[in-house]
Structures are given as structure tokens and as C-alpha cells.
histidine kinase
Amino acid sequence: MTNFNIMSLGKIIIVEDDSLSARLLQRNAEKLDYEVVGNFSNPQEALECYKENDVDAVLLDFQLGDEWDGSELNARIQEIRPVTVIFITSADDDESLQKILTANPDGYIQKPINSRELRAILQMAIYKTKQEKALTELNETLDEKVIERTRELDVAVTSLVKEMAEKEKVQLKLERALEAEKEFSQLKSSIVSNLSHEFKTPLASIRSSAQLIKAIGDKEGRPKEQKHAHRIEKAVDSLTDILMRILLVEKDQDAVYSAEIMTFNLAEFMKGLLQESQFDKVDNVSIAYEEQLAGVEISSDKRLLKQIFINLISNACKYSHPNGTVYLTLNIENGTLIFVVKDEGIGMSSETQQQMFHRFFRGDNVGSIEGTGIGMSIVRRCLDALRGEVNVDSTEGKGTTVTISIPIEG
């Protein structure tokens, strides 16, 4: 007989070979709100029922007859799956009770059984079993998490070890490349220095010879020879300037960029620079120059100032549109030389402006316009030597304005 109770405290199976005791036990259990899944006198039938139903407890008569005893049936039940087993017994002698305890049940109750004792033993036994089950499940879950986490850590460690090994290889390659670059740079600087030295001596001789020819032509009234001698001087000056620019880029900053202060007339310096350089010959670009510096003398490094001015004006002319105009403004404000170069040429993107002072860098919009990419690097390093500052305002396609500020002694 089976009775289902939706609000039951738990499901139980009763195994009792005495029919009267079995009925009384079931009645008491149901009154206590337990659902009796099955009530059997046959142990084999009880086992089959247990296989098919998930129950919370089994009430098992310890003395089932000659073929089975409670201890054997309990062992068979636990083999299927663990469950709370409470032995029922009519024995009260020490030997019988010792046998029951040896079978290791979750509890036992003696006949005759009353509801209070049954409630207490069922509640305690089922609670104990549920707690043990929950603890087992928790341990299994934790074990699974530990295993999974360990697996993840193993993968992470393996990946990290591999990554570190790759980084070490890359680092080694980088160190070798840097060492090779350093050696190459030293070799290149040595070659440049030697070539510069080798060029300077013959250039000085050529210049001296040109000056001599010019002097003779002037004395003897030979304007044609004077003209050619003057052209030779300009060519020598141009080559000398190129050599200096190369040295400014290649040599150590402290050795080459230390300022050599001298006092000179700023207006005459600027006039001579514009006449010598002939910037307006580049695509017929016009130079609009504004200054009010008549008679003003300053103390600075003419050599470095010349490099700054020439490179800025040259770039403005080079990157202007044909027949365009480059605007130059030169002033002194509060002991600071302010030089502004403005063009209406191709301009620069913000990305180009961020890199324009790097050696050999050229913008991506210069097209076929010739250039080496060292001019602005020279400007930057010359300004550093003179403790100057630079500001660039440029819009691609609209032009560029470069403003430099250099402290001077007037």
C-alpha cells in the first residue's frame, strides 16, 4: 500500500515481515507527514522498489527471518546508493543491540514504537544524512572547481612560460640589433667626420683661390673673372653648409651644438641670409619679410641661428604651391627673439606634426617634393642648444605657421 503526501517531510520505505507491525508503522509515519513509498515484507521486493525510487530513509526490521537479516539487506541497499537506514527491533538484550550497532545503522528504534520516538529518530537520522549528502556534494563541487582551476592555471602557466621564452628570444634579437645599429652608427659617424675633414681642406683652398682671382680681377678691371670667382665662392659656401648640416645630424649634441655666442647686427644678418640663400628661386615663391630692427644688435650663435632660419624658410618655400608667398616676421620682445614663418602650402596632418622633428621623417603628403627629412631635426637640436622653443600650427591642405622663441642678449 502506498500513500502520497504532497507536503511530506520525506519519503520512506518500510521493510517489516510482521504485517501488523508494518501497518502500525506506516500509519504512524503518515501521521507524522512522511510519504511511505512502499511497505514490504519481502526483502527482494523492497530492493527493487528502492532501485526505482529516491527515498530519504528506510525503516528496516533487523530480524527478517532465516534467509535475510537487517545487516545483509542494509549492505545491499547501500551498494545501490547511500541512504538513511533505521533498524527496528523487538530485542532488548545487550548481545542483540551490539549486533545492530555493528551493522552501523543511522539509528534504531525498539518495539513497540510510539509516534514521538519515531518522529525524533526520523528527523535526526534524515537531517544527518541530508547534511552529509550536502557536504559530499559540496566537496565534489569544490574538487571539480579545484581541478578546473588547476587546469586553467596549468594552461596559463604553460602559455606564460612560452610567452616569456618568446620575449627572451625577441629581447635577445633586439639587443643584437641595437648593438649592430650602434656599431653601424659609430662607423657612419666616423666616415662622415673623416669625409668632412677631407672636404674642408680642398674647399678652403678653392675659396682662397677664388678670393685671389676676385682680387686680381678687381685690381685689373676684369668683371667677368670677378663674376666667376664670386660664383665659385658661393658654391664653396653651399658645400660647406651642407657638410655642417650633415655633421649637425651625425655628431654628438654636446660636441657640435654648444652655442658660440657673439654680438652681431640682426638686420644685416637676416638680409645677408636672404640674399645668399635665394629662396625665391624655388618655384617662383615670393618672400614677404617684415622687421623693424635697424641698428639692433644681439648676442647669440650666428651659426645655429642660420641653420634654424634656413631650414624653416627652405621648408616653407619647398612645400608652398608654385607662385605662392612665404611670410616672415622677425621681432624682439622682452629679451626674446621671435621668428615666424608662415606659408599657404600643403600643410601637415596632426600625425605628421607629432613626428616632424624626428630624423629622416617626411610627411605622407609630400609626394615627389625632394627632401632628406633632416631639416627639422636640425632645427630642434639647434633650438635646444640656444634654449629656444618652437610652436607649430598647421592644417593639411591649408598651410603651416612655425613660431620660434629664442632668449638673447641685446
About this structure: The chain is about 55% helix and 20% strand. The chain has three domains: 11-113, 143-251, 256-407.
